[in-house]
Amino acid sequence: MDNKKTKIKNIVIAVLAVVIIACVVILVVRINTNKKNQTGDTQTETQSTYTGKRSGQFEIDYAAQVTKLADYSAIPVELSSSYEVTDDSENEYLTSILTTYGADAYKQITDRDIVEESDYVKVDYTGYQNGEAFDGGSATGVLLDVAGNSQVGGTSFIEGFTKPVIGAKVGDTVQGDVTFPDDYSQSSLAGQTVTFEYTIDGIYSKDPVTLADLTDEQVNTVFGSKAGVTTVADLKTQIEKDLQQNQYSAEVDQIKQYMIDNSDVTIPDDYFAARLNEYEESFKKDNLSDGQTLDDYLSKNYNMTADDARDKWKENLTNQIKVEFIFGLIAEKEGIEMDEDTYNSYISYIVSASNGQMADDNAVYEYFGSGHADEGEKYLKAQFLVNRALDSVADNAKVTFNDTSSDSTQTQEN
Description:
Elements: H1 4-10, H2 12-19, H3 22-34, H4 62-65, E1 66-68, E2 76-80, H5 87-100, E3 106-108, E4 120-129, E5 132-145, E6 150-151, E7 173-179, E8 193-208, H6 216-227, H7 232-262, E9 264-265, H8 269-287, H9 294-302, H10 306-333, H11 340-353, H12 361-368, H13 373-395, E10 398-402, E11 409-413
Parallel strand pairs: 2-10
Antiparallel strand pairs: 1-9, 3-8, 4-5, 4-8, 5-6, 7-8, 10-11
Helix pairs in contact: 1-7, 2-7, 2-11, 5-7, 7-10, 7-13, 8-10, 10-13, 12-13
């Protein structure tokens, strides 16, 4: 298997998009959820009392603000072995995505057709109360863990739910009575005895399907039209990329925290006030409507006050700005330069991720520049260099995987 550095470079655009700054994700979530005040009603609290400079008007001298820069040549990173990309982790991930796509994630048993208690069983079921199907009591293609009285990988059922399928034959339809607990959340069913009817679709072992078990035809059937993955080789490559990105994200989180903890960084008060004001105003513009105040919105949706939110925003923003200053300085020290092609691809990613809410590059720049495209472009280009520096530091990190089930460790040199 190729080393991590080479693989990470193959997904640099995706990584940059993930790492760049949390507000990209927040932006997309907010826009899609709220459609940016689609009623057009008069809003409150959208006019700021802040009278200072915009953050884009500041010229930050990274060297002046970072008075102690931690050694970043080989940062120690300790990850759980669950992040290591191995054949086992690839197959575990395969189980997850097969389940997500509604495909068989476990090996079907074909040498017998009678359900045993130790089996996984795929069923369609319908619940009847007084002879009538009740709401929420039906499902198709559900994989039951018979012994566990639960859905495989899911929640448990009411007591005795899976018992009627024991001894049934594939293709049979069987029935069984179960009684809901007295404190069941749906009052019409609490304490009631109902009848469930099950159609047995297939019997499965507890052995997961592996990549070695699949054919190109099966992969194409499951993933072709939905994900554009048509062969086993393509599927393996995509799984590796996904797992590498998960590993990289965990790595980056530790690297950023290490550098924050071991560097001395000062954030100018007026710059911090400008950034905080811009974040809050953006949040209010995207979320408040129908005469809401910030307190009203936060209380209703998050059970918190505006002061609580500001405290959290300050905490997150402090760490974010420290990361920007630290890795901005590293970019300068290492002579890291713009890569226009990759940068343009990154901006295009933000446009596409906004689901039509930002039509072009200029709309992206205006958003991140609080209405000033030139300042937004300046900010995003600075962040691009920050993340190239972060990527460079991650390439040289000393990663150790700890097996939580034993005392063994494995060190990965990048």
